[in-house]
Each structure stands twice: as C-alpha cells, then as structure tokens.
Design brief:
The complex is a heterodimer. In chain A, about 30% of the residues lie in helices and about 25% in strands. Chain A contains eight helices and ten strands. In chain A, the strands form two sheets. Chain A has a six-stranded mixed sheet, with helices on both faces. In chain A, strands 2-1-4-5 form a four-stranded antiparallel sheet, covered by helices on one side. In chain A, helix 5 runs parallel beside helix 6. The longest helix of chain A has 16 residues. Chain B has a two-stranded antiparallel sheet. The longest helix of chain B has about 35 residues. The two termini of chain B are about 25 Å apart. The relative contact order of chain B is 0.18. Classes of the chains: A alpha/beta, B mainly alpha. Chains A and B meet through helix 4 and helix 6 of A and helix 2, helix 10, helix 11 and helix 12 of B.
C-alpha cells in the first residue's frame, strides 16, 4: 500500500529480534512514507519499543532487512540512525531543565562565531535567531526562548524536544508516547505539532497507548501483538473496536483494515 | 499553518511578554544584588562596632585576604556546577604550595619554574582524581575525601624535617606585596570600565539589529553605571592605602577568564548541561566523562594557584598550610553567593562575592577581638542562613515559573 504515491522513506522486511528465549519481534514488515503519520500501537510487551529501538539503532535485528529511502542499510548504533536522518524523541525527553530553549535545541551542536577552537565564543545571536525561525515555522508558541525549560509546561517541553529533533534535518521522526502525562490542552498542542510535521513532509512514527490520540492524528495504525504484526489499518477506514480487537487478539481476523 | 492551530494557543499569559523579558534580564542582577546588599549590611554592622573596619588599610587587607580563598573557590564553582564536590582543594593547595617552596628554597629553582611546577602538580592531581571518579564511578565526595586525607601526608613528606619553609624570593612574595601607583590604578579602572561598557553596548546592539529581545538601554546603562561606581570606589579606597594590589588583579583576571569559559564557550555550556541532566547531555553527544575530568583538573589547578597565593602572603609554608577551615570557606563562599550545591546553577563571580563575604566576617571578628569559637559559629550560621534563603527563593521562583 502506498499512502500518497511516494516511495517509503523507511521499509522493514521480515525483521526479527529475540532476547534470549523471548521473541520480541517476529517477521515484522513495516513501512513509513514521507508525509505520513504511522501510529504504532500494541499492549505492553507487544514489541513497540523494541521496534522503535531497532530502527533507532539501539538494537540490531537478528534477521530481516531495513531500507531507508530505497537503500538497504545496516543500523548498528544510534549515530548511524541519526546520520541517515532518523530522529527519535524518547518519552523522558532528555532536556536540561537548567538550560533555556535555545541552549537545549543546540545542545551538542553549538554554533560558534569563529576564533580559536577551544575558546571560540558561542554564536548566541545566530542560534537564537534560528530557534525563533524554527519554532515559528512549526507554529510553536513559546513566550521567551531564553526561559529555562524547567519552568515550562509538559506540552511546551514536548514541543521543544520535538523541535530539537528536527534540527538535524531528519527524514523520519519517531515519537515515543508524546502525549503521555499531558493535559487535554497540551495534548492538543502536541498533536497539532505532529500534524504540522506531516504537512512538512516528514515520515512520522508515533507510539501511543491513547487510541483517541491515535485516531486524531494518524494516517495509518500499525498494531503489534506478541512481536508480530496484528493489523495495519487506514485510520479513516477502521474504528476503535477493530483496533482494540487487534491489540488484544480477541475476535477472528486481526488483519482487517486497510492492508491491500 | 492551518487555522485549527490558532485555537491551540499558548497557556494563558498573566504577564505581558515584555514584562516577562524584563524580568528575565534583571533576574540575574537581582540574585547578585542580594549578595552585595548582604555584604553591605555586614560591613555596616562591623563599621558601627569598630570604625577602623572601613579604613582603607583594613579594606586593602581584606582584599588581600580574599585572594587565596577566592581563587580556590573559582575551581569549586566549576565542580558545584557539575553537581559534584571537591573536598581535597585545601589539601591540594597546601601540598602544591609546599612543592613550590621546596623547589624554590631547597633546590634553588627559579620562582617561575617553582610556581609552574606547583600548578602542574595541581593539574596532575585533578587529572588523577577526576579519572578515578569517572573511571570507577566512585562518588566524587569519596574520591576527594580520600585526597583530603592523603595529600597532607605527601605534604609532610615533601616538607621533610624542616616543617616550615620561609619564602623570601621577591618574585614569589611579590605576588601579594606588589601595589600599583595611583595613576596606574586609575588607568586600569577607566580601561576596565570602557571595555565593559563597549562589550555591553555592542552585545545589546547585535541583538537589537537581529530583531531579538534585548534589555532596555536604560537597564544596560544602569548596569554599566553600577559597575563603574564599584570599580572607581574600589580603586579610590585601594589608592588611599597602598594602591591596587597585584593579587586583586590576579583574582579578577582568573574570574574574567573562567567567566568567559563557562558562559561564552561550548565547553562552558557543556558543564552546565552535564550538571543539569547528565543523561540528556550524553544523548546530545557531549563527552560527559571528558567534561567531568577537565572540571576536576580546573578545581585542583585553582587550588594550587590559591595555595601559591596563600604562601606568598604568609611568606612561609608549613605543615598546616591548606589545613583548617580553608577548604570549608572555599566551598561555603560560592554557596553563600548563590551557586547551587545540586549542579547546573551558579556563576564564577560567586567565588569572588562569596570570598568577600566570608573574609569580611572573619576579618571583622578578628578586628573586634572575638574568640575563634565565636568566629566558627558565626560563619557556620551565615552559611546556613544563605542556603536557606537560596532554597526559599528557588522554590518561590519555580512556583511562579510553572504557569
């Protein structure tokens, strides 16, 4: 199947991964197209995290192939994934609360204004300008980008973390539970940002437990159960009931929805 | 942007954005101003008790007394920014001062080489302690506690049987007994003010020209004015006595260097990041171990520098150099001035301000002829008070920050 006529940015074929006797992923086929939001759902222990970590280079698959933008790739560590253009925003966000938005966005890739290597002054003005442009581009409203992120709401922090992942100009963005522990209003802010990522042509993978959020934002819903694909639905053609059945394994056909 | 986005607006803003920005620009000033006010109160109290406290002679001495502990505190600030602690700085300062004295007095090394060797030993000790701390993941508290116990042993070995070594090399004693003429003092003051004003105005201008939020011009001018008054008054007082001491320039010079390093460079940014959230820093590709080791090298190196200055001022090194309350004063100073013990928050200037507060208390009580017992109790109480005030201020700010 093809979401919008384009070739998939990421394609996994027959990927398996086991940890000792535990088969975490079993012959999984998974693809994401540019400008497509794929929700990855499943019960605890279904293999969602393992799948994301395999794509992010934290685990290497035991079997199967991964291709990125049409080329077969071997992702053996996180920096391989980043170099390819795969950005991952983990649930714990990994922001420094004592640093402001600009400092967090550019952490580890600070820009300098020239001078001797070790003592070169930071280009604060340039970085702040780029931060403003990036946030404006994503329609993220933050009153003052020089405020410490520790003083910000969970929704703002999530948006900062997502914006941060975009600085490396990725093709694929994976979000691990981006709306967990957020209020209604803040969830709406984050989901709106996910939609804008789609508008800007990123492939987006969202892990979520919240089916309401999933149906709100996803183009496609991919269900994992006990390490196997248990369903691949087009969001417009499925209802929550079908997805829940696929997640829990209840009912006859797990492979209902939009798989052509 | 779709129209739906507009409904997903920001959390309700009680304050206007301009007000927010203004608060941010003065927040840092206010924290420092609080310490300056505390210092003013301490001076006033001592002045009322004993007018000689505010004499230029005594204030000059105060500056000289501040130097050694202030230099050690600069290193401590870096360690505190990481959220770590270095208990060995007193011991390291004593050992390194002893090495300098032995090389210069017993072995006839040139003063410069002796000082360089002492500082290099400090750096090596920092490298050892930092590597042990990061390599074996032992708490820095324990590693440097071991140093606190062990380095004085090396100090006894280095000093040998003599125990006390008198320093009479004019280059070494001159570090704390050189004073500049009135004219030179005034020239330095005006050059310093001019450079600060130029940098402050240029910094503001570059933000304005890029369309970024900038502090109001009045605030910048006010800041320049206050710095100028502080510098001019200091030079005036010092000139009234013997002139601006070289020791003060050394302290301010190190402060300026490390202020630049911590706030204007990538490495400094990484210190704050590691102190704020080491895991986030690691994931951002920062070499956390390297940052930590370098910070411990800075700490021990500054301890050595402080030890050299203390030895220069006492004109001697003995078995108890660097012992006693030197270590605790060096740690208490920055904390009193507002550097957090939990990492990620602080400023190199807190080393200077904190050392001034601590030394003022000790100097004033000496002048009043109070017992040592009282001195210890008062200094401890001031530290406790400062930390409590800091904790309250911080929790209030966080309550206000989370809308």
């Amino acid at each position: 199947m093809n979401a919008n006529g384009s070739a998939p940015v990421l394609e996994l074929k027959g990927v398996s991964k086991s940890f000792g006797p535990v088969q975490a992923l079993n012959d999984v086929n998974f693809e994401v197209h540019p400008g497509e939001v794929v929700a990855l759902v499943g019960d605890n222990g279904a293999g969602k995290s393992t799948l994301v970590k395999t794509i992010a280079g934290i685990h290497s698959p035991d079997a199967g192939t991964i291709s990125f933008e049409g080329d077969d790739v071997h992702i053996t560590n996180p920096s391989d994934a980043v170099a390819l253009g795969i950005a991952t925003v983990y649930q714990d966000l990994a922001l420094c609360d004592n640093l402001d938005v600009v400092e967090n966005l550019f952490l580890g890739r600070e820009e300098m204004a020239g001078g001797p290597p070790v003592f070169a002054p930071l280009d604060e003005v340039g970085m702040e300008k780029q931060t403003g442009e990036l946030l404006e581009n994503l329609a993220v409203t933050i009153t003052d980008v020089r405020n410490e992120v520790g003083t910000m709401s969970g929704g703002q922090r999530q948006q900062v973390a997502i914006a941060r992942s975009l600085l490396g100009e990725p093709k694929l963005v994976m979000l691990d539970e981006p709306t967990a522990a957020l209020g209604v209003r803040q969830t709406a802010q984050v989901l709106a940002l996910v939609k804008r990522l789609r508008e800007r042509g990123y492939g987006v993978v969202v892990i979520s437990h919240n089916l309401a959020d999933v149906f709100e934002v996803a183009d496609r819903i991919y269900v994992l159960r006990l390490g196997r694909e248990a369903g691949d639905f087009k969001a417009g053609e499925a209802n929550q009931d079908q997805v829940v059945k696929a997640i829990t394994g209840a009912g006859a056909s797990g492979n209902g929805g939009g798989k052509s | 942007m779709s129209t739906a986005d507009a409904t997903v607006d920001e959390d309700v803003e009680v304050r206007s954005p301009q007000m927010d920005v203004f608060r941010r620009f003065i927040a840092g000033d206010l924290a420092e101003l609080r310490v300056v006010l505390a210092l003013a109160v301490i001076w006033l109290v001592f002045y009322i008790q004993e007018p000689r406290f505010m004499s230029s002679v005594n204030l000059s001495n105060l500056v000289l007394q501040t130097t050694a502990v202030g230099l050690v505190s600069i290193g401590i600030v870096h360690v505190l920014l990481l959220g770590e602690i270095d208990l060995s700085v007193g011991a390291v300062s004593g050992l390194c001062a002893s090495i300098m004295a032995v090389l210069n007095v017993k072995h006839g090394w040139s003063p410069y080489l002796s000082i360089a060797a002492a500082v290099a030993c400090g750096a090596a000790i920092g490298l050892f302690q930092g590597s042990t701390f990061t390599r074996f993941v032992v708490p820095s508290f324990v590693v440097t506690l071991a140093g606190l116990l062990a380095w004085p042993g090396f100090q006894l070995k280095v000093l040998g049987e003599t125990g006390t070594l008198n320093l009479n090399d004019p280059k070494i004693t001159g570090l704390t007994s050189t004073f500049y003429s009135d004219t030179v003092g005034w020239i330095m003051a005006f050059v310093g003010i001019a450079v600060y004003a130029a940098l402050a105005l240029r910094g503001r201008q570059s933000r304005v020209s890029e369309g970024l939020s900038a502090p109001p011009l009045g605030l910048v001018l006010l800041r320049i004015g206050m710095i100028a008054v502080a510098i001019l008054v200091a030079v005036w007082v010092l000139n009234d006595d013997r002139g601006v001491p070289l020791a003060a320039l050394i302290l301010v010079g190190f402060c300026l260097f490390f202020f630049y390093l911590t706030t204007r460079t990538t490495f400094g940014r990484h210190i704050f990041a590691v102190g704020g959230n080491a895991e986030a820093a690691r994931r951002a590709g920062i070499h956390v171990t390297r940052v930590r080791v370098i910070v411990f090298v800075i700490s021990s190196t500054m301890a050595a520098v402080g030890g050299v200055m203390a030895a220069s001022r006492l004109l001697a090194v003995n078995q108890s150099s660097g012992a006693g309350d030197f270590l605790l004063l060096a740690i208490a100073g920055p904390v009193i001035a507002g550097t957090s013990l939990f990492g990620g928050r602080g400023s190199v200037w807190h080393a200077l301000l904190g050392a001034l507060v601590i030394t003022s208390i000790s100097n004033g009580m000496d002048l009043l002829g109070l017992e040592t017992s009282i001195k210890f109790i008062v200094t401890g109480a001031v530290l406790l008070l400062a930390v409590i005030i800091d904790a309250i201020a911080r929790s209030q700010r966080q309550a206000a920050g989370r809308v």
